[in-house]
From TrEMBL:
Coiled coil: none
Biased composition annotated in UniProt, kind: Polar residues: 1-15
Protein name: Mannosylglycerate hydrolase MGH1-like glycoside hydrolase domain-containing protein
Gene3D superfamilies: 1.50.10.10
InterPro entries xref list: 6-hairpin_glycosidase_sf (IPR008928), 6hp_glycosidase-like_sf (IPR012341), Glycoside_hydrolase_63 (IPR004888), MGH1-like_GH (IPR054491)
Entry-linked Pfam families: MGH1-like_GH (PF22422)
Keywords in alphabetical order: Glycosidase, Hydrolase
Signal peptide residues on this chain, from the entry's feature table: none
Region (Disordered): 1-31, 460-512
Similarity comment text for this entry: Belongs to the glycosyl hydrolase 63 family.
Cytoplasm is among the record's keywords: no
Biological processes annotated in GO: oligosaccharide metabolic process; protein N-linked glycosylation
Mannosylglycerate hydrolase MGH1-like glycoside hydrolase domain location: 53-444
Length: 512
């Protein structure tokens, strides 16, 4: 066990019988995945990796909760609530919640770099917990809904959804209002780490405008664990540091930064989560109609602003540079997740995933993070080619949502085979499946567990149900224009009411 792992080893009592609802048979794939989640559990949340990422990460926790719900719905609830307890007053959910018992030099940038409680004061950063000041993709409402579904009785008894709803609503509101930097209704990311696919070639052009912080002004901790050839370069890191430092020095106020990009995956996840919030609202006694309608409007904006019909993929939009970024990356396939995506676009995305640029089902078994034929392709370097398990899980869900059962089954089988064979690696070589990065990685184990649990009908039923519900709320496809207008006005009123409910809920909480 290395130094960080020793210092952060769980201090709480070991698992108690009532905590773990399902104990998989020893030696089974479920058991092996469960052991990873157990080893990474700190008592209130789960680290992505004991050595490389020894704190709580935002979108990791959402994916982890989705798997953890099959072992312990109460732990999965706690996972999300621990993260949401660190929410800022302006609604942002920070990308890292720092564990105070982890040494400062175990991960860079550390809490003394972000200085959230002082630099983030005007934005409402919490005083008692240290966090980063940037965000990550909003998978949380989707995760909260799936966690609820794992044990609705327990969820209702504990008031889980009633507690998280106002925080999730405020989170979405932050993204839709403070982060609409392009003015087209979609959210922008202001740092490559926010999008979660940190070193994607999609960022190369917008990042080139950023003056890097000198390499001697910071010390990278990732190179203590990862191989330098697989990690971002020092030049990239210098730019990441500059962007984060400038954001911090501006009090984490939004709008002024040198980097602003609308990303299709980030926005697709926001839309999927908005559909999930509609379901949560409905469970809590509201109609949810306004949220489904908003998700519809966002889907239309996504198509209008980012769909490239010639390349048959969604592209990122460089808000500062003013145009679409002509790079094919997995983020452009993630919108397949959306239940009400126009049919011809869903069909085109399926073609692109299986075509020469991603090779899914032919040259590759999991979806590569970047274009196999792209100039910047590198099969081992972070997000410039390797395949991650969370993006393949999202694609699997998307394929199932759009009735591509055979392809979804093949992807599920590949994901399970490679998760087990790679010792739940962080990511794999897209051609060979060779393990890369950390092993015992949180979301790899969690999402494998989810797929093991869902084998067959439940996931399909869930995806199909989601599509049906969203379509029903959208109204009959043939609805007359006048009826649509009326519907829109009605839903806007409902949306305002839902927003007010969310506001009240957040005020009742401690705001972080
Ligand atoms: C920066 C934790 C995170 C993931 C990201 C992944 C990597 C961090 C880093 O690890 O990012 O947030 O230091 O490279 O790219 O998706 O959430 O697992």
């Amino acid at each position: 066990m290395d130094r960080t792992a020793q210092l952060t080893a769980r201090t709480t009592a070991p698992t108690t019988a009532h905590d773990i609802a399902y104990d998989p048979p020893p030696g089974s794939p479920q058991h092996r995945a469960a052991r990873v989640l157990e080893a990474n559990w700190t008592g209130s949340s789960t680290v992505p990796s004991r050595a490389l990422y020894p704190h709580q990460w935002s979108w990791d926790s959402a994916f982890i909760a989705i798997g953890l719900r099959h072992l312990s719905p109460s732990r999965a609830q706690t996972e999300l609530e621990t993260l949401l307890a660190a929410q800022w007053g302006d609604g942002r959910v920070p990308h890292i919640v720092f564990n105070p018992s982890v040494p400062l030099d175990a991960y860079f940038p550390s809490p003394d770099f972000w200085r959230s409680s002082t630099a983030g004061r005007a934005a409402g950063a919490p005083r008692t917990v240290q966090t980063s000041g940037i965000v990550q993709p909003p998978v949380h409402a989707l995760a909260a809904w799936l966690v609820h579904e794992a044990d609705p009785g327990l969820s209702r008894a504990r008031g889980f959804l009633a507690r998280v709803y106002p925080r999730l609503a405020a989170w979405h509101r932050y993204l839709l209002h403070r982060r609409d930097l392009g003015g087209g209704g979609l959210a922008s990311v202001v740092h490559p780490w926010e999008q979660g696919m940190d070193n994607s070639p999609c960022w190369d052009a917008p990042l080139a405008r950023v003056t890097p912080a000198p390499a001697r002004s910071f010390r990278r901790a990732d190179l203590d664990h990862g191989c330098a050839g697989d990690r971002p370069t020092d030049l990239d890191y210098g730019r990441y540091v500059r962007l984060a430092a400038d954001y911090r020095d501006g009090g984490y106020a939004d709008g002024a930064g040198a980097f602003a990009v609308e990303d299709p995956a980030f926005n697709a996840l926001l839309i999927a989560s908005e559909h999930a919030l509609a379901r949560i609202a409905r469970e809590l006694g509201a109609t949810g109609t306004a949220r489904h309608a908003r998700a519809e409007r966002l889907t239309a904006a996504l198509v209008e602003r980012m769909w490239d019909p010639a390349r048959e993929i969604f592209l990122c939009r460089d808000v500062r540079g003013g145009g679409l970024i002509p790079e094919r990356a997995v983020c452009g396939l993630v919108p397949l997740l959306l239940p009400t995506l126009p049919r011809e676009i869903a069909a085109a995305l399926v073609r692109t995933a299986g075509g020469p640029h991603f090779g899914l089902g032919a040259a590759t078994r999991l979806v590569p993070s970047y274009d196999l034929l792209g100039e910047a392709f590198d099969r081992h370097r972070y997000w410039r080619g390797p395949a991650w398990f969370n993006t393949s899980w999202l694609l699997e869900r998307g394929l199932r949502t759009h009735g591509e059962r055979g392809r979804a089954d093949a992807l599920r089988t590949a994901l399970l085979d490679l998760a087990a064979a790679s010792d739940h690696a962080e990511y794999v070589d897209p051609y060979t499946g060779e393990a890369c990065g950390a092993t015992g990685f949180g979301w790899t184990a969690a999402l494998a567990l989810d797929l093991l649990h869902a084998r067959g009908a439940p996931a399909e039923a869930d995806a199909a149900g989601q599509a049906r519900e969203a379509r029903t709320d959208r109204g009959d496809e043939e609805t007359e224009h006048s009826e649509r207008t009326e519907h829109t006005e009605h839903t806007e009123q409902a949306e305002q009411a839902e927003q007010a409910e969310g506001d009240m809920g957040l005020q009742r909480g401690d705001g972080g």
